[in-house]
Amino acid sequence: MNSKYKVIKFNSNKFEDIEDLISVEEPLEISLKFKENNKWVNQNLSITMRTPGDDQDLVKGFLFNEQIIQNLNEINSIKSFGEKVGQYNIQNKILATLDNAENVNISKIKRDFLTNSSCGVCGKSSLDALEIIKKNKIHPSEPKISKEVIVQSPNILRQNQSEFSKTGGIHASGLFKSNGELVALREDVGRHNALDKLVGCALTNQQFDPKNQFITCSGRLNFELVQKVLMTDIGIMIGVGAPTSLAVDLANKFDITLIGFVKRDSFNIYTNNKKVIVN
Questions:
Q1: What single-letter DSSP state applies at residue 138?
Q2: Spatial distance between the Cα atoms of 13 and 15, rounded to a whole number of angstroms
Q3: Which member of 119, 122, 201, 217 is catalytic?
Q4: Is 217 a catalytic residue?
Q5: pLDDT tens digit sequence for 107-128
Q6: Residue that is last in its domain, among 129, 156, 181
Q7: What is the pTM of this model?
Q8: Distance between CA atoms of 165 and 113, rounded to whole angstroms?
């Protein structure tokens, strides 16, 4: 989703008035409805800045990646609500009603999310906290991908983005087969939102096949993004930018192959090079 804005452009030593397409950014308030002590409770969970569109995929991926749900069958419904607001006349509130109400970890929600509105994992104090949720490591040697597939994946991602060519201001995450074929793609102004949308889409369409797939993201690779990929059991993550130290530590801890700084003829392998075909 984008909108036209009037801007002043400086080019070739002169100024001119032009119209530029800008990616839309709007808040999305995510709430949960579940039973606590046999009574229905509505709880505000998170506020994230996102590009409107694919909001249900975003919520599905977010709830799964944070392990509030184990599978999509635990969601009874996801509905946008509230008044349509702002210049784009959209609803910026969404409610997910959970069927597994008796299994909802209320203390986890309050600890990890309610004090960290825009980013769920920011409330986690250490890598060890993830081991409570994710007990199994990723397969250490599957899938195998070639250097050609690695360097091509960011270009394939960019070529299939509907919004990047228009605005240049939007991130994307793509699910690929190990041979480099694109399976699914989602975009958002937020890197973590783009990945949540991708996971929600792939879960809905039953597209995940971890031993034969990898994920490529635009931008740098941080802890939140690696954590979200970890929950899908995908064992290879590629980014065009640099990883953070905590991203490398997390990938190393769970045998994820983390690849960054991907350019036309170069890239860096930060963890577990067993999945990259070097010959």
A1: P
A2: 7
A3: 119
A4: no
A5: 666 666 543 433 444 434 445 5
A6: 129
A7: 0.84
A8: 34
